[in-house]
Amino acid sequence: MPDPALLETFPTPSDAPFVVEHVNEEFTSVCPKTGHPDFGTVTLRFQPAPAAQGGTCVELKSLKLYFQSFRAEGIFYEAVTNQVRDDLVACMKPAWLQVITDWRGRGGIRSTIRADHGDVPAHHRGA
Amino acid sequence: MPDPALLETFPTPSDAPFVVEHVNEEFTSVCPKTGHPDFGTVTLRFQPAPAAQGGTCVELKSLKLYFQSFRAEGIFYEAVTNQVRDDLVACMKPAWLQVITDWRGRGGIRSTIRADHGDVPAHHRGA
Amino acid sequence: MPDPALLETFPTPSDAPFVVEHVNEEFTSVCPKTGHPDFGTVTLRFQPAPAAQGGTCVELKSLKLYFQSFRAEGIFYEAVTNQVRDDLVACMKPAWLQVITDWRGRGGIRSTIRADHGDVPAHHRGA
Amino acid sequence: MPDPALLETFPTPSDAPFVVEHVNEEFTSVCPKTGHPDFGTVTLRFQPAPAAQGGTCVELKSLKLYFQSFRAEGIFYEAVTNQVRDDLVACMKPAWLQVITDWRGRGGIRSTIRADHGDVPAHHRGA
Amino acid sequence: MPDPALLETFPTPSDAPFVVEHVNEEFTSVCPKTGHPDFGTVTLRFQPAPAAQGGTCVELKSLKLYFQSFRAEGIFYEAVTNQVRDDLVACMKPAWLQVITDWRGRGGIRSTIRADHGDVPAHHRGA
Amino acid sequence: MPDPALLETFPTPSDAPFVVEHVNEEFTSVCPKTGHPDFGTVTLRFQPAPAAQGGTCVELKSLKLYFQSFRAEGIFYEAVTNQVRDDLVACMKPAWLQVITDWRGRGGIRSTIRADHGDVPAHHRGA
Amino acid sequence: MPDPALLETFPTPSDAPFVVEHVNEEFTSVCPKTGHPDFGTVTLRFQPAPAAQGGTCVELKSLKLYFQSFRAEGIFYEAVTNQVRDDLVACMKPAWLQVITDWRGRGGIRSTIRADHGDVPAHHRGA
Amino acid sequence: MPDPALLETFPTPSDAPFVVEHVNEEFTSVCPKTGHPDFGTVTLRFQPAPAAQGGTCVELKSLKLYFQSFRAEGIFYEAVTNQVRDDLVACMKPAWLQVITDWRGRGGIRSTIRADHGDVPAHHRGA
Amino acid sequence: MPDPALLETFPTPSDAPFVVEHVNEEFTSVCPKTGHPDFGTVTLRFQPAPAAQGGTCVELKSLKLYFQSFRAEGIFYEAVTNQVRDDLVACMKPAWLQVITDWRGRGGIRSTIRADHGDVPAHHRGA
Amino acid sequence: MPDPALLETFPTPSDAPFVVEHVNEEFTSVCPKTGHPDFGTVTLRFQPAPAAQGGTCVELKSLKLYFQSFRAEGIFYEAVTNQVRDDLVACMKPAWLQVITDWRGRGGIRSTIRADHGDVPAHHRGA
Q: What is the largest distance, in Å, between two alpha-carbon atoms of chain H?
């Protein structure tokens, strides 16, 4: 089941603001209605808090294991997106953070869900 | 014939604002002038009202059945787009909603129609 | 020769604002200097005036015939673009309208001409 | 050697503002350091001054000959871009003008240089 | 090891503002945790200070050698990005500067890091 | 229901062998198990019999109407493909003929079915 | 665990030879060495035995469930490919059959495995 | 009207066999049934007869004028293809020659016609 | 330096012939003339000897480490390709084996080298 | 002017047959009729003679200088292709050799010329 305790962080290397994007094209969970697997891509974007304020970045391998913990979970698209955002905000306390999930489609319909935290810059809101 | 009663919803999982996009690449209706079938893609984007205000999301399978109910309907591009917007606004009462239809073309001309409801963010207005 | 009398309209189906885009990838006219044919794509975008104000949309087949009326015309890129804008504004009196022509190129140079009428939204001005 | 005297113009066909883009994918000059040829694409965008103010557009064949006049010139990327901008501004006195050069790369590095004149609209500044 | 002393500059050819972009698709360093090589693309964008203020541009071959000096370095994605920004700002003192690194991915996750200096125009902040 | 009587032909214009390919990207029928619509592309390739032997080509508009006659039919992918081959062979008696259907997919699986008649050349057998 | 008993068939609709291809882009199993999930695409091609000889085709939904039965299995790429071929040959006894698996990659290396049964036509052997 | 007298040739530069391909993406003629324009791409491939046997190549500008002579002609796809083959064979007497026409489509159906003369190599017969 | 001792194998899982392809897009070595790094893609294809004859497959992680052992080596394109073929043939003794290297280019020229061992099927010889 | 004396070779590293392909996307010469520059891509493929027979490979930098020697030459497409083939055959005496030139087009027509020497494998003859 989804396990935010898997997430680890390391101190941000800079006080100057910068932006990080991690894209996982190998996300899978299970549809709670039909029991069939869902497949999607998860995009995570964030600006770490400054080093002077104890800002952190999520460690890449721990992020991968966290995503893998959804593999057997029955969960809707909208809930995955909101939970990933909430878990990563809780662990990094970033300046801002954005989660976008793209799903390969069921019944001929492809879906994208986007959830923001904090003051996401306007140029990231369109995708 | 187009049947909005097919549409079902479920409560939005979050008070934090988020955005949903569903893309149906298998839409077909009939040209009321020639009787020939039209083929297109329908993109639906919306921000649900917050959970605390009774916000809802459209259920995916019901959306698919609603789109299929246009299959035998004689209806113009512009009318399809406006009706889909009105039916989905009536059923979800979202913070904002946008419908875009892209048509494969007749007589060498491809067409796109876009209809907005409420305060659609600027970054979605270009496509 | 270009014949705006070919253009027909029908009443817009809605008071709510919406946007229409028609793309004709089969436009051809003749270079007035060399007599060789030019080939291009014409993109037309507009927002009809509201139904309550007698707003109209251009009918698709009549638009196709209007574009075909340039087939034997000797006319520069810039003049085609300005004339199409003026003819369609005159026939529809839209809230705003934009015409973009993309030409396949002569002498190794590809060209694009864009002409706006009224308050074209910023997100359409870049292409 | 680069010869702005090759450039010819014709009167703009309209008082209404419109935008012209010419893309030459066959530009070549010579690296002044190594003597090896450089290959690139030159994009020119401008809004002619209004017809009532004597606005002009550059004639396409003269533009091609002007670009060909760089073929044997030893000149840096940055200098090409600034010179093309200055030569075309001097010949057309446009409302605004933009020159972008994209170079195929040397030593594994691709380069793009962009030079603006006047109040280039924001939507053209990103590329 | 990364060696900013390799960077050379030449005087900017213009007082008019212009923008330079260099893209190196052949960047490689080493993961400090696993010792495996990382592969990525580094994009550098900047506006030189005006010629009248002693503005300079980085010389292309020296930039290539500087990037090659990371080949054996064990260093995280985030640290590469911040160091390249700081080294280039120190050597050119540009009006503004932006560094974007795109990494081919480890464990199924692709990453992009973006670090800005000074007043980077809004249209460059989205990528 | 599928109606081969809609198919019309015209005499082939040549005794020299030549090959015709028609691709319809707007084919739709109905899944006989679920009642949901199927969407696909139908590719038809054939070599007409020589003019001297009374060879014919299928007329394009009649082919379109024939394909539209499957719109309400409940029929499997494999049966569509075999029926189209048999109907077209019966009406044209070509030197050889090939039908390929590509289906957009159900349950995450895309399908292609290929049925040949007569001595289809080797270079067409792979797709 | 992989369960060939899930596979169902239906009688082939024709005595004339034809070819079926099913592509599943949502295959996942587990690496037996590391325990991390593997993601790939499975392509199945076959020619059913003729109807007169009791030839059958695999039913699409049962094929999907069979592929899903690998989801928790620890198994190498090469073994997946050989097992899928053997299970499908046993259930359909086709004229010929081919299985191709494409894997998204581990450690920067993408892999493809191809296993044939019977006389696969030459034009299918290259991919 | 199509005018083969426009075609000019020049002597082939070599006795060694070689192959020439000319692709015209700007072909247009008129549908004899509807009077609407057709748009397509014409590909011409041939191997000139050896220089020692008086072999010739078609001159490029004359080929362009020949293709332009179809602009006002009402003629079917199949007839265009056979006529271009026959006219070019008559003027060049090549070792072999192939004409392929690709049409943008009418009524949702795209078409390709291919006509060969002489011993066209097998690797060119598939497209 | 290139170290074939890093290569490990495991027994092939089948007596039936099958084909394996591994593509490494992250290969780098050093040009022996200039000392600058080279970047390329290495494609390895082979058919293992049958299990009954002691056939083996190369283990994926060991293959990656073997490729990494070229990172500091000064070696020409042609020599890399021949050495990889020879090392892998020595370690696996496959039925046949093919190595293709694609190099990003130096001085504007991209290169591909292909080396075969044994009876590589014709359909693999073209790329 | 084209100067085959610029070409240098080095001994082939292997007796086993292998294939080399060099692609130069930055070729330019001059049209002898109009004096305008032509731009194209030159692809060179060959199999060196075995090392035991004194086989050689063309050196990459010398090949680049040889191609640059056509920069000011007035020469037809067909003649460029035949001359490159003859010059490289004379300098390397390869087992077989193939030259393909792709030209960006004049008057809306793109051209490709292919010239072979010796027994070029069938799979390379199609492009």
A: 49
Measured CA to CA, the distance from residue F118 to residue F57 in angstroms comes to: 16
CA geometry: angle E47, E49, E53, nearest 5 deg: 170
For residue I69, the 8-state DSSP code is T
pLDDT tens digits, A9-51: 999 988 888 999 999 999 999 999 889 999 999 999 999 999 9
Cα–Cα distance list, E107 to A57, C21, C99, E31 (Å)? 17, 43, 47, 13
Chain B: residue whose CA lies nearest to F70: B37
Q: Do A36 and F104 touch (CB under 8 A)?
A: no
Secondary structure E strands in chain C: 9-11, 18-30, 37-47, 56-58, 96-106, 109-118
The count of C-alpha atoms lying within 13 angstroms of the C-alpha of B108, restricted to the half-sphere facing its C-beta, is 23
Q: Which of D84, D88, D86 is nearest to D48 (CA)?
A: D88
Which stretches of chain G are DSSP H helices? 60-68, 77-92
How many angstroms separate the CA atoms of J43 and F74, rounded?
52
Q: Report the complex ipTM.
A: 0.89
Which residue matches tokens 């020497």? Answer: J117
Structure tokens at G3: 């369960």
Question: Is the distance from CB of F43 to CB of F21 less than 8 angstroms?
Answer: yes
Give how far F23 is from chain H: nearest CA, Å: 5
- Among B76, B108, B114, the residue with its CB nearest the CB of C18 is B114
CA distance between the termini of chain I: 28
pTM confidence score: 0.92
Q: Give the span between the Cα atoms of B107 and C65, in whole angstroms.
A: 10
Q: Which residues contact I74 (CB under 8 A, 6 or more apart)?
A: I29, I30, I31, I32, I35
D20/C76 touch (CB, cutoff 8 Å), yes or no: no
Bridge partner residues of F37 (DSSP) = F30
Pairing between β-strand H37-47 and β-strand H96-106 as defined by DSSP bridges: antiparallel
Specify the DSSP class assigned to residue J53: G
- I37 touching chain E per CB within 8 A: yes
Q: How many residues does chain H have?
A: 127
Chain E interface, best mutation among D109, D112, D114, D119, by max E CB count within 10 A: D109
F and D: touch, per 3+ CB pairs < 8 A? no
Between CA I47 and CA I58 the distance in angstroms is: 11
Report d(CA E107, CA G38) in Å as an integer: 10
Of G14, G16, G24, the CB nearest to F109: G24
For G41, the 3-state DSSP assignment is: strand
I109: nearest CB among J17, J57, J64: J64
d(CA G78, CA G84): 10
Contact G108, I26 (CB under 8 A): yes
Phi, psi angle pair for E73, to nearest 5°: -85, 130
**Non-local CB neighbours of E99 within 8 Å, separated by 6+ positions:** E42, E43, E44, E81, E84, E85, E88, E114, E115
Residue I31 designated active-site: yes
pLDDT for the residue numbered A99: 97
Predicted confidence band at F115 (pLDDT cuts at 50, 70, 90)?
Answer: very high
Per-residue pLDDT of chain I (127 residues; tens, 9 = 90+): 899 999 999 999 888 889 999 999 999 999 998 899 999 999 999 999 999 999 999 999 999 999 999 999 999 999 999 999 999 999 999 999 999 999 987 778 999 999 999 988 876 765 4
Residue J116, both tokens: 């072979």
Beta bridge partners of E118: E96
Give I 86-115 residues with CB within 8 A of chain D: 104, 107-108
SS3 breakdown of chain C: % helix, strand, coil, rounded to 5? Answer: 25, 40, 30
Nearest CA in chain A to F104: A108
Residue pair B94/B32 in contact by the 8 Å Cβ criterion:
no
Which has the closest alpha carbon to B47: B37, B38, B31, B58? B58
